[in-house]
């Protein structure tokens, strides 16, 4: 797979509860392939199985599993033509692992294909933030994670684009305009 194909993989990251999943749903409704957040899939799986790789139980195990899922997601979409939008990605999982263990995890192997150079970040949006069965942390923890992600993407040379707090259709248009 050449770098051009991988560069069609676009990450939407940012603050928990900032509207990432809603934006992905809008992009999917427009016919774009989208990949659900690894973390939510892992939480669902772990709760069904009674597992412990949950962010509020064992963050390091959760992050290691998120890395595996993110790598698998990239491989599964390797031959997809056109834009593919990811709700979080490998960098998010590595940043979580680094936070959980204190060990450097934000180094990607040279042969590891990068995502698109622009990463779209949903900023903290207290008015829409809500906890649920998979998001049990509060807004302060979400903002701290957001700050870590901004630093991580910056350190790896990605251009982070903050998405405005506007209606979902306009937000999707804004993102797509940046990619044109």
TrEMBL record:
Residues 10-171 form the NadR/Ttd14 AAA domain. Gene3D superfamilies: P-loop containing nucleotide triphosphate hydrolases. It comes from the Bacteria. SUPFAM superfamilies: P-loop containing nucleoside triphosphate hydrolases (SSF52540). This is Putative ATPase. The lineage of its organism: Bacteria, Pseudomonadati, Pseudomonadota, Alphaproteobacteria, Sphingomonadales.
């Amino acid at each position: 797979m050449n770098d051009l194909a991988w560069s069609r993989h676009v990450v939407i990251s940012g603050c928990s509860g900032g509207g990432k999943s809603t934006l992905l749903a809008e992009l999917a409704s427009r016919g774009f392939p989208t990949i659900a957040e690894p973390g939510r899939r892992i939480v669902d799986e772990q709760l069904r199985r009674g597992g412990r790789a949950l962010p509020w139980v064992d963050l390091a195990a959760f992050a290691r599993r998120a890395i595996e899922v993110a790598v698998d997601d990239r491989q599964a979409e390797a031959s997809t033509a056109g834009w593919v939008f990811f709700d979080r990605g490998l960098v998010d999982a590595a940043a979580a692992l680094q936070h959980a263990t204190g060990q450097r995890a934000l180094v990607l192997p040279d042969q590891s294909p990068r995502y698109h150079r622009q990463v779209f970040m949903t900023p903290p949006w207290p008015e829409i933030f809500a906890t649920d069965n998979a998001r049990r942390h509060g807004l302060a923890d979400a903002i701290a994670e957001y700050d870590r992600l901004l630093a991580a993407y910056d350190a790896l040379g990605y251009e982070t684009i903050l998405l405005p707090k506007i209606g979902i259709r306009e937000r999707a248009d804004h993102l797509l305009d940046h990619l044109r």
